[in-house]
Amino acid sequence: MPEEMSAETGASETEARQRWMGILAKAQPAELEVAWGQLEAHPAYQFLRKPEIGLVMTQGRMGGDGRPFNIGEMTVTRCSVRLDGGIVGHAMVAGRSTRHAELAAALDAMLQDAALARAVEKVVIAPLAAAHQKRRDEMARKAAATKVEFFTMVRGAV
Length: 158
What we know:
Blueprint (H helix, E strand, L loop, with lengths): L12 H14 L2 H10 L6 E18 L4 E17 L4 E7 L3 H15 L1 H32 L13
């Protein structure tokens, strides 16, 4: 069964969900808490999986063939919730913030609810995406300031 396309973004439901889950996972916990507080609706939810802290193995790729190799372990926190309406939300975030994982899971579920999605997108996702882009731009600006250009001078006639 083909996925429905979003009228606003042209993205499939899966792509849209990947986008917002990435934004929620990369958000600073304090920013997420502020955004949560600005929402008018806070639907009740039950934990399917309370926030759990664990480890995941991270992998990298190098060389021409791109074969994967293990870099090391990373601490993550995961959580799953169900809204009273039955919609299930999941989250996995870097670090040990159980509140971050809980809010991200609740917001994931809310974004799947057509009645709540527009408000959550406007009040939570858009500002968090802008804040994340601002942090990326700042890091890129700092990195660009350290860039060194090398020139080679040729002696004699060529």
